[in-house]
Description:
- The chain has one domain: CATH 1.20.58.110.
- The protein has three helices and no strands.
- The chain has helices spanning about 5-40, 45-65, 70-85.
- Helix 1 (about 5-40) runs antiparallel to helix 2 (about 45-65) and helix 2 runs antiparallel to helix 3 (about 70-85).
- The chain is elongated, with a radius of gyration of 17 Å.
- The N and C termini lie far apart (about 60 Å).
Amino acid sequence: MAHSLSAKKRVRVAAAKTLRNTMIKSALKTTLKKFHAAVEAGNKEEAAVSFKSAVKALDMAASKGILHKNNAANKKSKLAAKLNNMA
């Protein structure tokens, strides 16, 4: 257990950041699942809309430091290829 004030504050800050990171990761996973579901269903219009939201979520996660920028770019590239191969 933390004793000093600064150590107690670090515990509080870490808990708040962990909660924020978990929320962003969860939202990211949900948007990716929606995109993959639209692709599996063959719905090109819905897939295009969910692709935009997935790219935005990936960019936000990369900017917050939850994903590495190269990891986000790799995921976006794979999503774009999947969308383009739907034809």
